[in-house]
Amino acid sequence: MTKESFQLKIGDKIEIFRINAKNNKHSSQILDILNEKEYIISGPIRRSTIIHVNLNTILGISYFKEGKGKFSFKALVTGKSEKGIYKLKIERLDDIVKIQERDFFRLSQSLKVEKKFKVKDKKEDIVLEEICRTSDISGGGVKIFSNYKHQENDQFMLTFNIDNREINILGEAVRVSESNRNDYSYEIGVKFLNIDNSERDTIIRYIFEQQRELRKKGLI
Question: Over the stretch 158-211, which tens digit does the pLDDT of each residue have?
Fold first, then answer.
């Protein structure tokens, strides 16, 4: 993996959190890159309210790079502006490290999934919908059963519910094979594209809660 492949770029979504604090993760974004170690990021806001961050606060920064994994580093808040767009200036304190990500633990689980995708019909794009079922799910992708024979690299929108939250994710088919089920003809391995950090966290929490229950019952 080259260094450039996991470096942050302007517009990248990140998560910021105070070191050793619980339940304090906030979504942010890279607004500008001043040099190899200094960045301007959007300040944390929750329900239209600014979350004040003091100068000299040390933050944890984490972010996901498609196909590369999740990375993190520590940063010092060296400047801030709450006029107009809420911004923080941060300085990276250590090397960027790859997290051995729990995102990719897979849970065998059957969930109802609505799949929407475009096909050509007499020179026009039409949108088809199909109700599918999951075979397993992780923070990085899902395996679904389908009756439409997709090709690798086909993209589609997936909608499903986890813990009373509707998840909408763009997915890409990475594997297509015949299914051994009677109700679905094909099994499709799907990679999530541009998944929002909060949606990924919802999926991961769900996976670990389900695993915890299975352990209690002695099933895993």
Answer: 999 988 889 999 999 999 999 888 999 999 999 998 788 788 888 888 888 887
Triad 21, 23, 28: Cα angle to 5°: 95
How far is the first Cα of the chain from the last one, in angstroms, to the nearest whole number?
A: 34
- The residue with tokens 């890279």 is 30
How does DSSP assign the chain, residue by residue?
--GGGGS--TT-EEEEEETT-SS--EEEEEEEE-SSSEEEEEPPEETTEE----TT-EEEEEEEETTTEEEEEEEEEEEEE-SSS-EEEEEE-S--EEE--GGG--EE---EEEEEEEEEETTEEEEEEEEEEEEEE-SSEEEEEESS---TT-EEEEEEEETTEEEEEEEEEEEEEE-S-SS-SEEEEEEEES--HHHHHHHHHHHHHHHHHHHHTT--
Q: Rg of the Cα trace of the chain?
A: 20
In this structure, the dihedral spanned by the alpha carbons of residues 53, 55, 58 and 61, taken in order and rounded to 10 degrees, is 60
The closest alpha carbon to 142, from 130, 127, 122, 159, belongs to 159
Of 147, 166, 169, 149, nearest to 157 by C-alpha is 169
pTM: 0.54
**Segment 40-89, tens digit of pLDDT:** 999 998 778 888 899 999 999 988 776 677 788 999 999 999 888 999 99
Q: The tokens 């509707």 sit on which residue? A: 166
